[in-house]
Amino acid sequence: MFLPLRHESMEGRRWPVISIALVVLNLIIFLGTHGQIEQENPQRGQTRSHILMLAAMHPELTMSPDAQELVTSFQRDYPAAWANAKSGNREVEDVWDAKMRLMDDPSVLQAEMDSLCSEYAVQAGQSILEKYAFVPAHPSGISYLTANFLHGGWLHLIGNMWFLWLAGVILEDTWGRIVYPIFYLVAGAAALQLHAWFNAGSLTPTLGASGAVAALMGAFLVRFPTTKIDVAVILSLRSVANLAMGKGFRFKAAAYWLLPFWLLAEVFSGAIFGKYSGTAHWAHVGGFAFGALGALALRYSGLEAKADAAIESKVTWTAAPAIVQATEQLEKGKLDDAIATLQTFLASNPESVEGYTLQQQIHWRKNNVPAYRDAMAKLIQLHLKAQNFEAAWQDYQDLRNSGAETLPAAIWLELGRAVEGQGNFERAVEEYGRLAAAFPKERPALLALLSAGRLSLKNLNRPADALRFYENAEKSSVPHLDWDTNIRNGIEGAKKALGPVSA
């Protein structure tokens, strides 16, 4: 099993109060309902089983409409099990079953069926699952909401809440505290509806937040496709213990291949196992698709830009009149006017984070990708200067998500140093390497090679990589007489760490 642990964009501009509230609400509802659900399931399951066995052995008996619907649904969905129930040679299920086989008085049998139907109706009226879970055969309006807050067990709850936290925190920071919860609730309803289409007539209650959470995963894929996710490989209970001690096998994977892999697994499971599975795979698929399409709609409709501007206005102490004017022009769709206002403002305020934040949003809205990337590069530079490294990294991720492969070399080098300063040596080496490959004839590329070699040798214990970086620095066309001693020492240190090479 692959278990995502965290990703690169866990830090937001504000506390994720909506995501926290969703987790707390799910926990409170679980604690308030789990005991009753655990108690009612065996009782209701036994009553249903007895109705089915009695109807199979004595089809002439009359039943209540609800019981008849149960029998008809079971006959349709499980023909092999129904044929076995009708067989007189099947194994005895329980004491009640043995007793019924000895009876042949029609009036006594009908009385037993009437009693079972009455008990079935009473249990349905008292059942949390019947009232608030989603039943495809007859869904209630409220169940499209409430089913998303019910869970069948601790593992079910913890799994859904963990994935909600991973994907939801950054989406809340992107969309704000109004759009995000609306999206979450609507997505949960949409996922349940797709489940109903694939399981028409099913009487099996569906519960859990997984459809809505899958929508967050779909939106995460669209919004942050290149974000690296830290994943642990769980093979056994020992793997879990190793993970708790900071050990075990882990790897990093970009969202653009990890999440589609999960989606394909759900499609495969839904196609193969269908209604016989205890997991609502098609609800996951439906939620994921809704989330991906919804994220695209929010971004290209301009709602995301408006939400982001509103968040920026709340997290910023003051806003200049020009920023306010440009924001109003953006909201009215006067994009060219907003750009003109910002250009005048930025000419006299070249270090305004608010100005460049709004500018990149407008350029994105106009689909002016080159201008958007230029504004993002400037914004990253300003964040680095202010030592707001989390914001710089988030903007870099957004820039990469737009399809950009590079940053201006000097800014890129500073970003790598910021990542290195935070102790993320592996990511720093990766960025230094990308910089060196993109700008081989510029001095920042030479400095990036030296930094990558140093980290590979001293911090990551990768002497082969260190040797490669130092040798590339030695071959660089960038003048490096002032760095020759460092390069030679690095090459010698890497070769020494590698040990003797046999002929």
Q: What do these coordinates show?
A:
With 503 residues, the protein is mostly helical. Helices cover 71% and strands 3% of the residues. The chain has 23 helices and three strands. The chain has helices at 17-57, 65-77, 79-86, 95-101, 106-126, 128-132, 143-146, 154-198, 210-223, 237-244, 255-273, 281-301, 303-315, 321-331, 335-348, 353-365, 369-385, 389-401, 409-421, 425-438, 443-458, 463-475, 484-498; strands at 2-7, 228-233, 250-254. It is elongated and about 105 Å long. The two termini are 42 Å apart.
Q: Multimeric state of these chains?
A: single chain
**What overall form do the CA principal axes indicate?**
elongated
Gyration radius, to the nearest Å? 30 Å
Residue fraction in strands: under 5%
Stretches where pLDDT is under 50 for at least 5 consecutive residues are none
Averaged pLDDT: 87
Overall number of strands: 3
The helix count comes to 23
Name the structural class.
mainly alpha
The helicity comes to over 70%
Cα separation of the termini = 42 Å
Q: Characterize the main sheet.
A: 3 strands, antiparallel
What letter string, H or E per element, gives the SSE order?
EHHHHHHHHHEHEHHHHHHHHHHHHH
Spatial strand arrangement across the major sheet: 1-2-3
